[in-house]
Amino acid sequence: MPPPEGYRDRVRCPFCLVDDDKVVDSRSAEDGIAVRRRRECLACGGRFTTQERIVELPLMVVKRSGEREPFERSKLVGGIDRAVAGSPIGPEAVQALVAEIEEEARAGGAEVRSDRLGVGVLERLRVLDPVSYLRFASVYQGFESAADFERAVIELRKTTEPKRGTNRAPG
Ligand SMILES: [Zn+2]
Questions:
Q1: pLDDT grade, residue 57 (50/70/90)?
Q2: Centroid of ligand 1 to alpha carbon of 29 (angstroms)
Q3: Distance, CA 154 to ligand 1 centroid (Å)?
Q4: I need a labelling partner for 23 at 20 to 30 A (CA). Which of 57, 68, 82, 161 fits?
């Protein structure tokens, strides 16, 4: 979106605190990753420097093939939407889930492996809704047969059912 007409990116003067200045010089800095602007306060004539840099670095997804692509929230949302269709998990819960996974991925650095994203979804769906979990797992893990599904169900039971204590015969 372009800035509104008459917009100027003014910065409050550190000397007189008036929010009215003009840029007198603008140059690229730090090998092009930042821009520095020399500004002059129109109220007191004081000069100061501001710096602009990228705040949010792009998150790259490393696919199984080793290919990299920029993380797209909508893609992940789409995959989960298909898995949760007809389940009690609503669109807001999906958005929250994806936001959580993205945050986790960004905390881990500039790159995330696609299988890490998939596992993140699986971990959460497993807790939220077993049917959605299995649907997502079937697509994500490329299930080919009913046997694959059965194995996943058994795996799911193992991890969700409370462990039973061993029954010892008295005496
Ligand atoms: Zn000033």
A1: confident
A2: 25
A3: 70
A4: 57
* Cβ proximity of 110 and 121 under 8 Å: no
Alpha helices in the chain (DSSP H): 73-84, 91-107, 114-128, 130-140, 146-160
- Give the Cα-Cα-Cα angle 144, 145, 149 (nearest 5 degrees): 105
**Which residues have CB less than 5 Å away from ligand 1 (the ion)?**
13, 15-16, 41, 43-44, 46
Number of domains in the chain: 2
Structural domain of residue 47, as residue ranges?
Answer: 21-53
Q: What is the value of pTM for the model shown?
A: 0.58
The structure tokens listed for 2 are 């372009």
* Dist. CA 7–CA 86, nearest whole Å: 47
Lowest mean pLDDT among 20-24, 94-98, 145-149: 145-149
Q: Using the predicted structure, report yes or no on whether residue 3 has a pLDDT greater than 90.
A: no
* Under 8 Å between Cβ of 94 and 78: no
Are 19 and 13 in contact by the 8 Å Cβ rule? The answer is yes
Measure 18 CA to ligand 1 centroid, in angstroms: 6
Q: Given the DSSP bridges, would you call strands 68-70 and 47-53 parallel, antiparallel or unpaired?
A: unpaired
Please indicate, yes or no, whether residues 139 and 86 belong to a single structural domain of this protein.
yes
Cα torsion 136, 141, 143, 146 to 10°: value is -70
